[in-house]
Design goal:
27% helix; single chain; 6-stranded antiparallel beta sheet; Aminopeptidase i, Domain 2; alpha/beta; Aminopeptidase; 11 helices; 9-stranded mixed beta sheet
C-alpha cells in the first residue's frame, strides 16, 4: 500500500467514524466541537459581550447556535483590521423522519410511532431498514432544563413493505401515502407491559379518564401541554430515560429523529467506496473542520481570518434562526469586524471592507455520474467518484459560481495538487440549490459552489468516493492557507 493510499484510507476512516457518531445535526455539531477542542479552539457564547473577551491574533475560536449550527474561526497573527475572511460553508442536516409531537399510536396489535418527513428524502429507501432514534432531549434537573444528546445504539423500529403476493405491481409501480404507509412499527401491544396495563385499565373502567368527573383537573393541576408520557408510547419514554439515566418524569420535551442503524463503512473491491447515510452533507462538515484545524500550523504567517460556518435546516430552505438565511454568520462577522486586534477593545466597523475582500466556498455534495442512468447527465459534465471535488455551475444562479471564483479555486487546487471537476445540469433537468446563493446575496460576498461527487443523494444509504475525503480536506486547508495571497492577484472591481 502506497503512502498516498494509506493516507486517503486514514482520512476516510476518520470520516466514517464521524458519521457514525453524528446521526443528527446536534450530534454533528458536537462531533465538530470535539475536533476543534482537540486542536485548542476556545468556545465563545453569543450571550457574552465579545469586546470583553480576549479575541486575539493567533487565536482559535468557535461558537454555536441552537446546538445545531456552528461557526469556527482562526485569526492570523499578521491579520489587520479590514483584511478578508476565507470562509467554508456547509450544512449539518440531512433528510430524515422526525417523531411527531404526539406520536403514540397502535394498529392491528402493533405499537407504532408517528413520524413526519423532514426535507426531500427518497422515502422508499426507508422501508425495511433497521431504524433507531437520536436527537436532543430536555431534562429537568433540579428545576434547570438541560439539553442532553441521545443516540440509541439498537435497532428499534422498521417500516415494513407489503409482501409481493399482496401487491403484484410492486416491482413496476411502488407508490404509497406518506402519512399512512410510512409509519414504523416499534413493538406489539400483546407483549408490551405498558400497553397491556393501559388496555386492562380501560376495560376495567369502561370509559376513558377524560369522562370521569372525579379525574377532571383542578386549576392547580393544569398543565399547558400533555407530558411526553401522555403524548408518546410509555415504553419508548422509559427506554429514553434509561439511556439518559434519568426518570421518565424528568423528560420535558425532545426533538428526535429516526436514523439508519447500519453503520457507515468503507467498501468496494478496492476500498474505493464509502457506503453511508448522511454523506450529504456531513462530508463537507468533516472536511471543513479538519481542514481548518490542519491550517493552524500556518497561523504565524496568516494575514486573514479563516472560518467555517456549518448551518442547520438547509434541507428545508435555510429559513430559521440557525439556518444560512439567518443572522448567524452576519452577526459573528459584525462582531469580528468591530474588534481592534492591535489595541484591544472595539474599533471602527470594518464589515463592508472585510466582506469585499472575503470569499465563500459553499460546500455541498454534487451528483456523480450514475452508471445505470447516464442519460440523466449533461454530455460533457459527468463527475466521477474519486476524481476530486466538483465545481457546480448554473447560469440561473442556483449555484453562485462565476469565473473569478473558478480562477481562484483552480490556483488553490494547483497549490495543493488536488484535481477538480465541473458540473452543470442538463437544460431539460431541474437544478437543486444550496446555501451559496443565499449567503452571496445576504453578505454581498463572492461565492463558489462545490462539493464531492456522490450517488443516491437523499437516500437513506448513499455512496461516495473513499479517496475524495482527503482531496476535499486538502483543498480546504489550501484555501485557508493561500486565499489572501491568491486573491490579491485576481482583479475584480479593483481600482
Amino acid at each position: 500500500m502506497s503512502d498516498d493510499t494509506e493516507r486517503a484510507l486514514s482520512y476516510a476512516q476518520g470520516f466514517v467514524d464521524f458519521v457514525n457518531a453524528s446521526p443528527t445535526p446536534y450530534h454533528a455539531v458536537n462531533s465538530v466541537k470535539t475536533i476543534l477542542k482537540k486542536s485548542g479552539f476556545k468556545e465563545l457564547s453569543e450571550r457574552s459581550n465579545w469586546s470583553n473577551l480576549e479575541i486575539s491574533k493567533g487565536g482559535k475560536y468557535f461558537v454555536t447556535r441552537n446546538g445545531s449550527s456552528l461557526i469556527g474561526f482562526t485569526v492570523g497573527e499578521k491579520f489587520e483590521n479590514g483584511n478578508g475572511i476565507a470562509i467554508v460553508g456547509a450544512h449539518t442536516d440531512s433528510p430524515c423522519l422526525r417523531i411527531k409531537p404526539v406520536s403514540s399510536r397502535t394498529s392491528e396489535g402493533f405499537i407504532q410511532v408517528g413520524v413526519e418527513q423532514y426535507g426531500g428524502l427518497i422515502a422508499h429507501s426507508w422501508f425495511d431498514r433497521d431504524l433507531s432514534i437520536a436527537g436532543r432531549v430536555y431534562v429537568n434537573e433540579n428545576d434547570q432544563f438541560v439539553p442532553k444528546l441521545i443516540k440509541i445504539d439498537k435497532p428499534l423500529l422498521r417500516i415494513p413493505t407489503l409482501a409481493i403476493h399482496l401487491d403484484r405491481e410492486v416491482n413496476t409501480k411502488f407508490e404509497f401515502n406518506k402519512e399512512t404507509k410510512l409509519v414504523p412499527i416499534a413493538g406489539q401491544t400483546s407483549i408490551d407491559k405498558n400497553e397491556k396495563a393501559a388496555s386492562a385499565e380501560e376495560k376495567k373502567s369502561g370509559h376513558s379518564c377524560a369522562d370521569d368527573p372525579e379525574l377532571q383537573l383542578t386549576p392547580e393541576q393544569f398543565v399547558s401541554v400533555q407530558t411526553v408520557i401522555e403524548r408518546h408510547n410509555k415504553s419508548l419514554i422509559e427506554l429514553i430515560a434509561r439511556e439518559l439515566k434519568v426518570e421518565p418524569t424528568q423528560i420535558e420535551d425532545f426533538e428526535l429523529v429516526l436514523f439508519d442503524h447500519q453503520k457507515s463503512t468503507i467498501g468496494g473491491l478496492n476500498d474505493e467506496f464509502i457506503f453511508s447515510p448522511r454523506l450529504d452533507n456531513l462530508t463537507s462538515c468533516y472536511t471543513a473542520a479538519v481542514g481548518l484545524t490542519e491550517s493552524v500550523e500556518y497561523l504565524s504567517k496568516q494575514r486573514g481570518i479563516q472560518l467555517i460556518s456549518l448551518f442547520d435546516h438547509e434541507e428545508i430552505g435555510s429559513k430559521s434562526a440557525q439556518g444560512a438565511d439567518s443572522t448567524f454568520l452576519p452577526d459573528i462577522i459584525q462582531r469580528l469586524t468591530k474588534v481592534d486586534f492591535d489595541n484591544g477593545g472595539n474599533s471602527a466597523n470594518y464589515f463592508h471592507e472585510t466582506m469585499a475582500k472575503s470569499f465563500l466556498l459553499s460546500s455541498d455534495m454534487a451528483h456523480g455520474v450514475h452508471p445505470n442512468y447516464g442519460d440523466k447527465y449533461e454530455a460533457k459534465n459527468r463527475p466521477q467518484l474519486n476524481a476530486g471535488p466538483v465545481i457546480k455551475i448554473n447560469a440561473n444562479q442556483r449555484y453562485a459560481t462565476n469565473s473569478p471564483g473558478i480562477v481562484l479555486l483552480k490556483k488553490v487546487a494547483e497549490s495543493v495538487k488536488v484535481p477538480l471537476q465541473l458540473f452543470v445540469v442538463r437544460n431539460d433537468s431541474p437544478c437543486g440549490s444550496t446555501i451559496g446563493p443565499i449567503l452571496a446575496a445576504k453578505l454581498g460576498i463572492r461565492t463558489l459552489d462545490l462539493g464531492n461527487p456522490q450517488l443516491s443523494m437523499h437516500s437513506i444509504r448513499e455512496t461516495g468516493g473513499t479517496y475524495d475525503i482527503v482531496k476535499l480536506t486538502d483543498l480546504f486547508k489550501g484555501f485557508f492557507e493561500h486565499y489572501v495571497d491568491i486573491d490579491e492577484k485576481i482583479l475584480c472591481d479593483h481600482l
